[in-house]
């Protein structure tokens, strides 16, 4: 009854886990401690947040695409 369970986990991971684990801590650090914009820490955090935001978007797109591909071959109570 849960044919797309793995695919739904991928969507949740792309929208939930990646931003909470990799993007928000870097943004919050920059906002809270206000490192110098000429320093390495600011640009490293900004780079990490940007790269992992792109990974999150790509992960969400690919997992939604995978749900669409799996929906074409899905049969309720199919004997796999």
UniProtKB/TrEMBL annotation:
Membrane-spanning parts: 7-28, 40-61
Keyword Nucleotide-binding (UniProt): no
Chief location of this protein within or outside the cell: membrane
Domain Amino acid transporter transmembrane: 2-66
Locations listed in the record: Membrane
GO BP annotations listed: amino acid transport
GO CC terms in record: membrane
Alphabetized UniProt keyword annotations: Amino-acid transport, Membrane, Transmembrane, Transmembrane helix, Transport
Record InterPro entries: AA_transpt_TM
UniProt KW Protein biosynthesis keyword: no
Name this protein carries in UniProt: Amino acid transporter transmembrane domain-containing protein
Species per Swiss-Prot/TrEMBL record: Quercus lobata (Valley oak)
Record lineage: Eukaryota, Viridiplantae, Streptophyta, Embryophyta, Tracheophyta
